[in-house]
Amino acid sequence: MIGVGAGVKLMEQAVYPKAHVLNRFIAKLIDLFIVVAADEIASPVGFLSGLAYILIADGFAGGRSIGKRLVGLQTMRLDSRESAGFRESIIRNLPCGMAQVLFAVPYIGWIGSVAILAFEGLLIIGNEQGRRLGDEVARTQVLDAGQLAVPD
Fold it and tell me: What percent of the chain shows pLDDT beyond 70?
């Protein structure tokens, strides 16, 4: 039993409804088209710019990558009820960045890349709040835009 004077602060974590899974996949597909286009237009610099986009995309204004903005989603920090910043975006998108790096390695890398993306996709579907591994580590959640109502 923890006493009042123990100095332990319990952080209240809000629970929000899961964003529509199909919308999340469509948004990620749009973002992946941007990554592939960057790679095709300006190879090898395009690979690095695509990787940078994957990592920082959710840190743009309102916690929205281009795909999320078009579909109507946003990435929120659970601890502060604010939009995700570049720090949270990099942390939550490290698995996707690793998948892109692995994809550059023929055969074995392709299998590893698909395995990472499939695992993350299964977590989105199976988790009650739609939080994948990157979201758990970064303490973020993807919501339908405007879903977060902050009481005054």
Answer: 86
